[in-house]
Write the structure tokens for this entry.
Amino acid sequence: MALGNRYKTAPGAGTLAALILVLIFGSPWYWDWAQDNTDPDTAGGWWLRLLAWPHWRFDSGDSLREIFVDDLKAILLIALTALFLYLLPGSQLARARGTISQFFAGWASYIFAGGFAALLTTLFLANPSLLGAFRSAGSGATYGLFVGWIIGLATLGGRRGTR
């Protein structure tokens, strides 16, 4: 028996999509490839590098604090995406599954998650500053704006989190 969209929840599908994005495009291998093979002065190169924003790593050449902050940012991005998908009312108030409000709620969840994950992890840097926190949150929100449509598409057609 196939488990089609009948059993898919919008928050679950969006969280799974966020996890896949972070695992694949946040991996050290993809990040190295993007840095070596893309031109940041082109739209495609910029976007391919942006995909690697919440990268996770385990490089012994970096300080433990830097590794912790990057890994925490990736973990928080996924966790906050799940939280915001449950909290945003767009998909819950929609009369029918697959509406445009469900798409925008998923997209907005990723924008908020990216901004807040970056903002919160700035607190763990060696010399955190308010300006650094604002810049970091801006880069996280930029990532969510340009990549979050994938999460929005993943949430289409799913039922709300609880029945």
